[in-house]
Design a protein that fits this description.
The complex is a heterodimer. Chain A is an alpha+beta fold. Chain A has 15 helices and 22 strands. In chain A, the strands form 6 sheets. A 5-stranded mixed beta sheet of chain A has the order 3-22-21-18-17. In chain A, helix 3 packs across helix 13 (347-355). The radius of gyration of chain A is 24 Å and the shape is globular. By secondary structure, chain B is an all-alpha fold. Chain B starts with a helix and ends with a helix. The mean pLDDT of chain B is 87.
């Protein structure tokens, strides 16, 4: 009888089906519901709201969210499709909720990890104590593709190498969080965190208002403070700019968004020149000096004189200015050594070595093919393991054992034997799931989590981070090009004052 | 601001203004064909000629039918001046300067593009007045939002400069589409008569009501005077030049009436010349010739702007200029 009625915003008839009915946990750890199917602590209000809203109304709100992404131009181009075909990176309107107490532990763990990795990078470019003490084989570090001899012996401003980090976390079937990957070069995705939050405030205002959620909106002012800190004290007003590869880069939206929110110039390599040992940008009134460059271009392309000579994106001579101390670069060139996937396997030892502490967040168990014994284990179990190349990212150069063919396994066995240094393997994880809206019901989908960490005057961890979700049923791949989407991530406050934005005391940036 | 950014803001505005004016062009012609004043290919071909894209049109289409011309001017992706192409480039430029324009401007330009990207030729042919009216309105909306949401600083002045130079060029072209109307009556250009064509022409420049209040009955010479030489009507060529000049001087800080670069010199000369021209002189010389010359000079001003503000000059040249005190 209710089928023909207009959807009501207030309540539905008791016999009407709601999206939460018949939700199937599928035997996985679910972020919203416990094993009994009851909402986890902090998820009750969301659960109740989803029972109140008719499926049609939820779908209407989902479409409104999609439309708002399209109008904002948060899209990427699909290769091989006609001009004018753009896809949004969809945001699912069921948020992922993280318990405040659990988050406090994760935050401490991330701070610990970044502190140790920064010490590690500084060490390997100076004395190399950790190598001399044989905690990590020297060849592994000095022979790594991401090792940059150009910065050996260099002291970056304030001793900080990794200013902006995105660390990928996953929850396994045992309910524990693990670090899957460190990203210390140019991690992206934070703009989605900020935009998703805006969209969720519009889409589910009642739930949002009734839940104590830690804010994320101060990220850009914290980022600006992190960047200006690098040149603080040496010059009056440090001039910051963000260096982008340009409008055709897939993360361009994020680059322009961050520059806009920080009120700094968004520059391309062709806007910059090196002269008189300084970096200048070309303006309508002549050349103006830059003091801090937040570069979103990989080391390889940043300066054709120091790195790849064929790069058209970089600034010739930039590294000379950097080494003279006349410009700060974030992240510092050379940080890639710490997110090499083989070095990753040693991070627990790195934490112990520099801090004399046990790692708070464990690594996923990892086999290093460089080690003969571990290699044999990997080669004998290729059908069960996930194999990754040390220097690839974005899901490239990967073998997912249980989903692979015999031919693919044979090919990877050859690759591993030919270049064991370049491969690691991990057990196939049973990633946790979060409900997503599919038609008139909720279905579980696998997720990961990328928190963002800023290392400036102190270390700041943005509450939550980017939850990426594999929208295809059964898929473990969360990348946007392969049917991935994202979710707003709500970290619940444990104290009332955590819901307030605390603007850091920072020296203001001015623009002429 | 960055030279590259200034250039993008300038072109973003030019492309939006171009799209809006092309819609105005087409609209006036449609009105006339509805009134059965003129119809058939002879009505539509001059539209292509005034955009200067004859050669390309012949490559892409066989006949100058209404459908083909509208397709060419509105949707053809291979025509760099079609409304679709203008919006596409306006959006690409806007995308590359999102950090200096307001969020509202970006949203509007993006939606404007999406509207054209989704539209089909049938939409334009079935409901032409609505379709081209929407484009016109979106263009005006963008202008309004730019003025009310972007700081009136350097970036805004580049946008203003681009918009008014483009509008000056396009108003002169709108007039030029109908220049042949003058030919049969060149001897009695001073006489007044209400003519559907002249009314439609004025309407396409949103000028009909304003003209009526100021000039009364329609006469070719007065229409020419109004669209070229009026100092108060915002689509008149002289008004546009004056505003563009204002923007140029606000950018460089040069006092009005003086110049410090080629762009200011050329634009100042053109503005002054028009300010001291009578409509009868334009007619005597030949409207088409006058408009031709005007367009060449506008192109020259555009070039000078590019050389002065956007060109990739080497640092050494700049450093030398600073030492010798020669202004940039």
């Amino acid at each position: 009888m209710t089928k023909l009625q207009a959807p009501s915003l207030v309540q539905t008839a008791p016999d009407d089906r709601t999206v939460v009915d018949g939700y199937d946990l599928g035997g996985f750890f679910d972020e919203m519901y416990d094993d009994e199917g009851q909402p986890r602590p902090g998820c009750e209000k969301l659960h109740r709201r989803f029972r109140e809203l008719p499926p049609q109304e939820l779908n209407r709100r989902q479409r409104a969210a999609d439309r708002s992404l399209l109008h904002l131009g948060i899209t990427f181009n699909v290769y091989g499709e006609a001009e004018g075909t753009e896809r949004i990176f969809p945001v699912d309107l069921v948020p992922r909720i993280i318990n405040g107490r659990e988050w406090d532990v994760l935050e401490a763990g991330l701070k610990q990890r970044i502190t140790a990795l920064n010490l590690f990078i500084d060490d390997v470019y100076h004395e190399g104590k950790i190598l001399k003490d044989k905690v990590i084989p020297e060849d592994l570090v000095l022979g790594a593709r991401a090792y940059r001899k150009q910065v050996a012996g260099f002291n970056p401003p304030k001793g900080i190498w990794c200013h902006i980090t995105g660390t990928d976390l996953v929850r396994g079937g045992d309910g524990l969080m693990y670090v899957l990957e460190d990203n210390l070069r140019c991690p992206s995705g934070v703009s989605y965190v900020l935009q998703n939050r805006q969209i969720m405030k519009q889409t589910l205002p009642q739930v949002f208002g009734a839940t104590p959620i830690r804010p994320v909106d101060d990220y850009c002012s914290r980022l600006l403070a992190t960047l200006t800190h690098l040149m603080h004290g040496r010059l009056g007003q440090p001039r910051v700019a963000l260096l982008t590869p340009g409008v055709y880069n897939s993360a361009y939206f994020e680059h322009s968004f961050l520059a806009q929110q920080m009120g700094v110039e968004l520059v391309e390599g062709r806007d910059l020149v090196v002269a008189d040992d300084c970096v200048y940008m070309r303006t309508t009134r002549g050349f103006e000096r830059i003091d801090v460059l937040y570069r979103r271009i990989d080391d390889d392309f940043i300066d054709p004189k120091a790195f790849r000579a064929d790069s058209l994106l970089g600034v010739p001579g930039l590294m000379d200015v950097y080494k003279q101390g006349n410009i700060a670069l974030a992240n510092a060139p050379g940080t890639g050594i710490a997110d090499d996937k083989v070095i990753y396997a040693y991070v627990p030892k790195i934490v112990k070595y520099y801090l004399d502490e046990e790692p708070i967040i464990p690594n996923v168990p990892t086999y290093v093919c460089w080690d003969a014994k571990e290699r044999d284990h990997v080669l004998g179990n290729l059908d069960k393991l996930v194999v990754k190349a040390a220097n690839e990212s974005g899901g490239y150069g990967m073998l997912i054992g249980p989903h692979s063919t015999a031919a693919q396994r044979e090919q990877f066995a050859k690759l591993i034997r030919a270049n064991p240094r370049n491969y690691i393997a991990q057990p196939t994880l049973s990633l946790s799931r979060v409900p997503v809206l599919v038609g008139d019901r909720l279905e579980g989908r696998h997720v990961d989590l990328r928190p963002f960490i800023l290392y400036g005057e102190d270390i700041f961890v943005l509450p939550g981070g980017l939850t990426r979700v594999a929208l295809r049923k059964g898929s473990l791949v969360v990348n946007s090009s392969q049917g991935g989407g994202s979710k707003d991530t709500w970290v619940l406050a444990t104290h009332p004052d955590q819901t307030q934005v605390q603007t850091p005391a920072s020296q203001a940036q001015t623009q002429s | 601001m960055l030279s590259r950014v200034a250039e993008s803001v300038y072109w973003m505005s030019r492309y939006i203004e171009r799209a809006e004016n092309t819609a105005r062009f087409i609209d006036v012609n449609l009105q006339l064909s509805l009134d059965r004043v003129v119809d058939g290919p002879s009505q539509w071909r001059p539209m292509v000629s005034t955009t200067g894209d004859d050669e390309l049109f012949e490559k892409l289409h066989e006949e100058s039918t209404q459908r083909n011309v509208i397709q060419f001017l509105t949707f053809d992706r291979d025509n760099p001046n079609s409304i679709y192409s203008c919006l596409r480039w306006a959006r690409e430029n806007a995308r590359s300067v999102r950090e200096v324009i307001s969020q509202e401007m970006w949203l509007l330009i993006n939606r404007f593009y999406l509207m054209l990207n989704q539209a089909r030729i049938e939409d334009a042919l079935d409901h032409p007045h609505e379709f081209f009216g929407d484009i016109r309105q979106a263009g005006q909306h963008f202008t309004g939002v730019t003025d009310s949401s972007m700081s009136h600083g350097e970036g805004w002045n580049f946008s203003k400069l681009g918009r008014y130079l483009e509008r000056a060029d396009k108003t002169s072209r709108i007039l030029d589409v109908k220049y042949y109307l003058l030919l049969p009556s060149v001897n009695d250009v001073g006489t007044t008569f209400d003519d559907i064509q002249w009314a439609a022409l004025l309407r396409s420049a949103s000028a009909f009501e304003m003209y009526r209040r100021k000039c009364g009955l329609l006469s070719p010479i007065k229409v020419v005077e109004y669209l070229l030489l009026d100092q108060e009507f915002p689509r008149a060529v002289l008004f546009c030049l004056s505003r563009a000049n204002e923007a140029l001087h606000d950018i460089s800080g040069t006092q009005r009436g003086t110049f410090r670069n080629t762009a200011e010199k050329r634009l100042g000369q053109l503005e002054a010349e028009l300010a001291f021209t009578h409509a009868r002189e334009v007619i005597d010389r030949g409207l088409h010739e006058f408009v031709d010359d005007l367009q060449t000079r506008l192109n020259g001003i555009g070039q000078a702007i590019s050389e002065t503000f956007f060109a990739q000059r080497p640092y050494a040249e700049y450093a030398a200029m600073r030492r010798t005190g020669v202004p940039t």
